[in-house]
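Good morning,

Attaching, inline, the backbone tokens for the sequence recovery test we're adding to the shared suite. The designed sequence is right after.
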């Protein structure tokens, strides 16, 4: 089978999402292509991907149409993995394969960034957009057609933002004008929305699931049964996702779908997890089972997020469905997994609602302001997992210094300082239970 897809990211989400979809298209004879996975950062799982020849088991579990689903798919859509940090020439060679047509990425919200400090001679450049620019330049020099580029990072206008970064690197490196024109003429940078809760490697179920499989799988992966992929454009003729039964929407505008999902589902997650972790909980299911945290999440969603969106029946139904998905008995979504890169996640998922709520009401939303205070307190612990510079700054800085850090938030947030410090004082002096009770009072 031909290699037709280059995928930046070997983590659990893309393996529970795109790689499963491609496997299903291949299985039904609708597509003839495999994925080459590129490791976007220096440390990753590519060695495991290659040890297992790209094959792994994906457990999909939940409730669908009122029926409990608990299925396992042996996914065979990945042909191999490439680590550009140790196989840079092999990475560049991907651009010379004429069968390659689709590029897919999920490098977290922090992945699409323009650093402006890299050189085209770096092997590889540090950032994902810089790595992509080098690959596209190789493609251009080879005289081959461009790509359908499906960015799955959870930021607004993810495809456009990625394109903007690529164009900035082309300008920084003074690459030919013909290449710049080729980037926009021959490549399709699609804005997308992805939705599937992926719970990753099931550490506390390994023995049970290994016995079920009858073999060891270091890449076994778990996710909910629900999925949705909204993509601007329509490449169904080349990438027949709908025909394979995948819940894909090809559309001219992804914004309404993205805003609802990012604000309610991801915003709900991000607003809750750090405070819940400080409170001593470990999984989303534990949060839903805890009366206090459940009440906090409901108040956040139905009194702060959804009213800011418009409070339509569709928004409310989506919110109720999200709560059902969070309470999925099979999903053991670790709070520390969701907590990864929380500063950039908070900026993308929660801060826009805070600002819109404040503008509309003249007051700060209590729950989401509390969640920012919890973020500040969480980053003073040893459980924070983010860019090293961010962790070092957040651990030592005062609340005022953090809130005025426009580099993190896109604007000065010191107008929130009084409320933030009030919640921090309660957390530090009276504990998280009292803090939750205060915000819910």
């Amino acid at each position: 089978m031909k290699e037709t897809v280059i995928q930046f990211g070997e983590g659990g989400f893309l393996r529970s999402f795109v790689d499963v979809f491609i496997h299903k298209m291949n299985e039904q004879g609708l597509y003839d292509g495999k994925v080459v996975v590129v490791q976007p950062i220096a440390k990753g799982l590519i060695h495991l991907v290659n040890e297992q020849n790209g094959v792994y088991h994906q457990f999909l579990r939940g409730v669908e149409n009122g029926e409990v689903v608990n299925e396992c798919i042996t996914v065979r859509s990945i042909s191999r993995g490439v680590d550009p940090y140790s196989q840079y020439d092999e990475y560049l060679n991907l651009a010379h394969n004429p069968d390659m047509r689709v590029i897919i990425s999920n490098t977290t919200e922090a992945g699409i960034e323009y650093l402006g400090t890299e050189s085209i001679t770096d092997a590889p450049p540090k950032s994902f957009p810089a790595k992509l620019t080098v690959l596209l330049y190789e493609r251009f020099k080879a005289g081959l057609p461009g790509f359908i580029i499906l960015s799955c990072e959870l930021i607004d206008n993810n495809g456009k933002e990625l394109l903007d970064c690529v164009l900035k690197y082309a300008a920084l490196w003074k690459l030919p004008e013909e290449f710049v024109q080729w980037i926009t003429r021959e490549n399709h940078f699609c804005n997308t929305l992805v939705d599937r809760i992926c719970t990753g490697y099931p550490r506390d179920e390994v023995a049970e699931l290994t016995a079920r499989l009858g073999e060891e799988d270091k890449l076994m992966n778990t996710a909910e049964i629900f999925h949705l992929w909204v993509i601007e454009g329509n490449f169904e003729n080349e990438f027949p996702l709908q025909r394979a039964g995948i819940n894909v929407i090809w559309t001219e505008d992804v914004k309404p779908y993205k805003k609802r999902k990012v604000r309610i589902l991801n915003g709900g997650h991000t607003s809750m997890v750090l405070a819940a972790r400080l409170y001593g909980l470990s999984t989303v299911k534990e949060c839903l089972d805890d009366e206090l945290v459940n009440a906090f999440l409901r108040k956040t969603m139905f009194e702060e997020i959804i009213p800011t969106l418009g409070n339509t029946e569709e928004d409310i139904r989506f919110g109720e469905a999200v709560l059902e998905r969070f309470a999925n008995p099979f999903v053991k979504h670790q709070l520390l997994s969701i907590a990864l890169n929380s500063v950039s996640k908070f900026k993308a998922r929660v801060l826009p609602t805070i600002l819109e709520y404040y503008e509309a009401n003249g007051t700060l939303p209590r729950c989401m302001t509390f969640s920012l205070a919890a973020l500040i307190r969480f980053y003073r612990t040893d459980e924070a997992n983010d860019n090293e510079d961010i962790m070092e700054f957040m651990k030592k800085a005062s609340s005022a210094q953090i809130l005025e850090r426009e580099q993190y938030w896109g604007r000065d947030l010191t107008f929130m300082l009084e409320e933030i410090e009030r919640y921090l004082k309660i957390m530090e002096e009276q504990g998280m239970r009292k803090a939750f009770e205060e915000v819910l009072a």
